[in-house]
Amino acid sequence: MKRIKIIGGGLAGPEAALQAAAQGCLVDLYEMRPTRSTEAHQTSDFAELVCSNSLKSESENTAPWLLKQEMRQAGSFLLREADATAVPAGHALAVDRVLFSQRVATLLESNPKITIHREEVTTLEESDPDTITILASGPLTSPALAAELQRLTGADHLAFYDSISPIVDATTIDMEKVYFAARYDKGTADYINCPFTKEEYDRFLDALTTAEALPAKSWEQIPTPDSRLTTHNSPVHYFEGCLPIEETARRGRDTLRFGPMKPVGLTDPKTGRWPYAVVQLRQENLRADSYNLVGFQNHLKFGEQKRVLSLIPGLENATFLRYGQIHRNTYIHAPSLLTETLQLRSHPTILIAGQLSGVEGYTESIASGMLAGRYAAALAQGLTPEPAPRQSANGSLSHYITHAESKRFQPANITFDLLPPLEEELRKKIRDKKERHKLQCDRALAAWNSWLATSPAAFRALPTTI
């Protein structure tokens, strides 16, 4: 049996390693931190959640819920640890990021089939007959490895900007000015809500749109074919799904009120009404001693962040444990490079997983690693991997990144738009969107479970007690 080499200790890499090891394969897992760090990571921990601590909605029959349900049924190791380290977050799955990383590290370090290497990988052996490689080095892949991948594929990289939201010390929040609530009372009231009047919102918006931004660093610039990721004069190219708040605000005075500051469904108990706008704070850890500002990624200087964010009601005297950031996120052009089993078309013994493959989001990255680990295990055992079914959330996500319209390809989270639509007759008959989504979820889970039950031995569903 061939060995499996996995590069990257973020989310996709550890999940892939644990999946392949569970299938009986010997795994070498490489992580360059702490030998070489990145511009966004704070630690050298496995499965570090760099940005938010949320794995999105747990509301039944939503697309994020569907993806996680499929992963749970298949025995995702990291999702099991996320469930075990969950913190209150209303209808979302959010985790204590430190405890989560610790538990993932314990799984990896205690597995006799996984050998951990703390060193940077700068070459890819595309013709090694004894090794299957999974590249899961993430959105901040080192320049040397990115250049090697570019050499191997002959393709230009794309880049967008990813985010880190500010974190505030819970003890410094003025609790007299804020209130706990979940939108439309859906789930438990775990979010702290900072309500704005129109006057407060206008003052905040004026300060935000005139605040001084950080200059783009050389490592943040978009690469050109000749630059090998070192161009200094490329334009800033934000990912539309993850804009900094100051950029969103410049698109119109009400844009934030229809985005991250949307007050709909958040009744203020002091007034009995929805506020004009609201900033939501989400619990960071089980101790509840810190909260992050939901959707408040930005590219402002730290001093400017302190000045502007202190205009948020309840945060006038807050201590910020971490300020927001925007950083470059690199990914391959999957439609032209990858098969639906995440193999490079020109080098099928190399698989790409995680955000580098073009999926966006924590859960999506773990899901990609889960599939890559199983596909690699099949290849290591001399089997032909069978792609996840198109009707499932996992299969639809893989189908999107490998079949998207080439010129407009951007990373994607899981949404119902990626799943096959219902038959026209059903769409005409069922007008209610929630009911249609439920039918799509039922169909997806049936297809997923059938795939788990009938695919080759290397794809057997793993019990969640492993």
Can you describe what's shown?
By secondary structure, this protein is α/β, with parallel strands linked by helices. The protein has two domains: 3-155 and 332-459, FAD/NAD(P)-binding domain; 163-328, Elongation Factor Tu (Ef-tu), domain 3. The chain is 31% helix and 15% strand. The protein is built from 13 helices and 16 strands. The protein has a six-stranded antiparallel sheet. The protein has a five-stranded parallel sheet with strand order 6-2-1-7-16, with helices on one face. β1 (3-7), α1 and β2 form a beta-alpha-beta unit. α1 runs parallel beside α10. The longest helix has 22 residues, at 433-454. It is globular, with a radius of gyration of 22 Å.
Task: Give structural attributes.
466 residues, alpha/beta, FAD/NAD(P)-binding domain, Elongation Factor Tu (Ef-tu), domain 3, six-stranded antiparallel β-sheet, five-stranded parallel β-sheet, 13 helices, 16 strands, 15% strand, globular
In brief, what are we looking at here?
The chain is of the alpha/beta class and 466 residues long.
Which structural category do the helix and sheet elements fall into? Answer: alpha/beta
Largest sheet: 6 strands, antiparallel
What share of the residues lie within helices? 25-40%
Count of discrete alpha- or pi-helical segments spanning 4 or more residues: 13
Which parts are unreliable, with pLDDT below 50 for 5 consecutive residues or more?
Answer: 219-235
Work out the strand percent.
5-15%
What is the CATH architecture term of the largest domain? Answer: 3-Layer(bba) Sandwich
Q: How large is the radius of gyration?
A: 22 Å
Mean pLDDT: 86
Order of helices and strands: EHEEHHEEHEEHEEEEHHEEHEEHEHHHH
Number of strands: 16
Give the full name of the CATH homologous superfamily of the largest domain: FAD/NAD(P)-binding domain
The general outline is globular
CATH class label of the largest domain: Alpha Beta
How many independent structural domains?
Answer: 2
The span between the termini is 22 Å
As laid out across the biggest beta sheet, the strand order is 10-11-12-13-9-14
In the CATH hierarchy, the third-tier topology of the largest domain is known as: FAD/NAD(P)-binding domain
